[in-house]
Amino acid sequence: MASSDAPIQIGRVALIVNDLDKVGDFYRSAIGLERLSGGGEELVLGAGDLPLLALRRDRAARHRPREAGLFHTAFLLPDRAALGRWLRHAADRQIGLDGASDHLVSEALYLRDPEGNGIEIYADRPRSAWQTDGRAVRMDSIALNLQGLLDAADAPWAGAPAGSVVGHVHLQVGNVAEAETFYMNRLGMDRSAHMFGASFFATGGYHHHLAGNIWNSRGAGPRSADAAGLAEVVLAADADALAALGAVEFSDPWGTKLRVEPKG
């Protein structure tokens, strides 16, 4: 997996949802995650025995799409064949897509869960094929060859395969420069790419583990206390990176919560 040697990477994501049963069923049937644990108010889903997503019920939480918070959770599949299998599954099940893009470093498909939380399903190209300039990685958004991806499917979709991870999390922020200050200076990440209205952050030479954009949220202030959507992003750090951070809980300038756990 192209992100596995990074000092800091994404561990899992937690979302606040109104209808736990409906949203949980979607992530199991449409995305292919497995139920790992859960009681009446929280459901933990993952691939194999690796937790990737926690859903927390709050029937009173309000959907606030223009606020800072989640743009999308990006599930990274082990290879292109797995992405092709998922695309065939989406076509067979008539799962609606919001878009599809070739990002040069990866091929990606986009959709939303029943409560509007953004999702990306993607597979990386080999790192040897990425174009870089120092710590910057060249990325773009061009037309994806959907037929070629469908042809890469080598078997029916049977759920998210072992080795699937949350490859990155893309956030809505109020100001890109403030996001750069926080994610680079406080979390110690490199700015791996920048485009109009968005910056991308990574460790270990990955194309990005976190990103922040203002496409829907320019000028946003602190998040509302009763907002549905992103509850927290849990990062996994190696021992040196964890020691360098000096803390395990952070909030970005808009109140988005990040928690750091040791790898392993």
UniProtKB/TrEMBL annotation:
PANTHER family: CATECHOL-2,3-DIOXYGENASE. Residues 9-124 form the VOC domain. The lineage of its organism: Bacteria, Pseudomonadati, Pseudomonadota, Alphaproteobacteria, Rhodobacterales. This is VOC family protein. InterPro entries: Glyas_Bleomycin-R_OHBP_Dase, Glyas_Fos-R_dOase_dom, VOC_core. PROSITE patterns: VOC (PS51819). Coiled coil: none annotated. It comes from the Bacteria. SUPFAM superfamilies: Glyoxalase/Bleomycin resistance protein/Dihydroxybiphenyl dioxygenase (SSF54593). It comes from Paracoccus simplex.
